[in-house]
Amino acid sequence: MTRRRLSPAPASLLIMLAAWLPFLPMLAMDWPLSNLVLMQGAAALLLSRWFRLPLWWQVINTGFFPLLWLVYQADIEPIWFLAGFALLALTSLGSLKTRVPLYLSSQRAVEAVAGRVPAQARVLDLGCGLGGWLASLKTRRPDLVLAGVEVAPLNWLASRLRLNGKAAIRLGSLWEEDLSDYDVVYAYLSPAPMAELWRKVEREMRPGSLFISNTFAVPGIEPDETVELKDLSHARLLIWRR
Ligand SMILES: C[S@@+](CC[C@H](N)C(=O)[O-])C[C@H]1O[C@@H](n2cnc3c(N)ncnc32)[C@H](O)[C@@H]1O
Of 17, 52, 73, which marks where a domain is finished? Predict the structure, then answer.
């Protein structure tokens, strides 16, 4: 594991497991678990900083096992776990199939796009999540005609309510969307769909239109422009002009 090569999620998993290694003998000697989870959290913090993970990954890695222990100690009614699972299922269960989880664009991603989009352009957010990126874009650029498509029912509902009258929000798969209707298509997905998505972009997007991917590259296809966002997740926008 080099300091920069691994992306934050697998690096975090390895770090959280590695942070247990020095404490395994104490675990075997029945040291109090409350002390061990705190020491493991401190070790995970040091490793996360050493590997220069983004701040919020440092927080997750530090707090994961201490919080797990606290939850285990608390006398929580099982119904709350069921409610948590239902919430997770309605927002994210589809990601087992799509391999695209829910996480949100930063304000910097909105500002960077708002400064590059032509007047009155039709903009589509592929997988619009909770509608935050579209809502902020509308605030900065009221002239734009906005649309979003979202496959997870609860995310779609949140977007639909949030953007009522400001953007057309469709419940369904991004693969059924006709990209030729748009001047700008924005996607913040994952590495998994990018090669196939690029084929769709090539088939459907009109000359002069923009395809913008937050963070995730298209294998083998260099973008025309890369914009470093300098936000907490070290995200960047990759922009292709068709
Ligand atoms: C990383 S989030 C991005 C949310 C939002 N666009 C933003 O930038 O803040 C990706 C979203 O895409 C949705 N998604 C994943 N695959 C999809 C698909 N095939 N069709 C429609 N939405 C999809 C997920 O449910 C999730 O809400």
Answer: 73
